[in-house]
Design a protein that fits this description.
There is one protein chain. The chain is mainly α. 58% of the residues lie in helices and 10% in strands. The strands form 2 sheets. A two-stranded antiparallel ribbon has the order 1-2. Helix 1 runs parallel beside helix 4, helix 1 packs antiparallel against helix 5 and helix 6 packs across helix 12. The longest helix has 26 residues. The chain is elongated. The two termini are 40 Å apart.
Amino acid sequence: MGSKLTVGRGAIATACDLLGYIRTNAELEGVLIEYGISDYVRPSGSIAKTILNLKEFAVKNPGHQFSTDFGIKPLGILLAEEVIRRVEQSSKTEKLWEKLERYLNLDGYSLLRGTTSTWGAVTLEITGLTVAMPQFAELPESSNEVEILIDRHGFHIAERHLSSAKENITQGDWEAANSQCRTFLEALTDAIAERLYPTESCSRSSGLQKRQLLADRGFLSREKHEFGDGHGQTFLPGLAKLLHPDGAHPGISTQHDAIFRLQLVLVTARWLLKRLENSTGGIT
């Protein structure tokens, strides 16, 4: 696992909360001493106080590098791995483990699971942490770049929908996240049309009409099947159907499905925003 990637404050804060279930204060202090974290976070006499100090330092310094027996690792990754190594998965910690996994998924990571057998009973346990996609895909970086470009162009409606999609995922509301992903993409293409062709956009009331305008003016290519009218198989109309085919109803989506749709939207948004940048030479 490359050391350039780390995890966000949500995953770090949740990992620290899980470390609060570590067995003894001595074990916690031993972790801090082993990796040199104690140079920055002094033990405070109780697990709760030490964890609070650790959380405050870690969310401010997620990429701070520490030496381990497996090489140099950023603090955020190190804490997540220590949780996996030391904190039991039980009814008391179940909700925190689920929350941690949602945050890790948003950061581009997945929890590894393996089977164990005790007295003939087979159980599935968390065994490690891995990058969810090949590093060249750079999904966490793509997410950050999309947010920077959206803010730069002042696409605030699209920004709110993207933020809502991520928030819904952290709360485990997969159907609402799917809905927000689709609305985000529609708001983004609306905003691009209004930015590039403000006069013509005024006479196009619907999102579909604005995307047709983008295709008419060559921003989207019909020849390359990026957009098409009618029932032809083209990219953006097909993606819109994929993102939210069944409506926002409970029980029709899963965590992995929602993450997949968010990743599709982020990659597509980055592609559209980069094309906008090339079309305008930056902000117009």
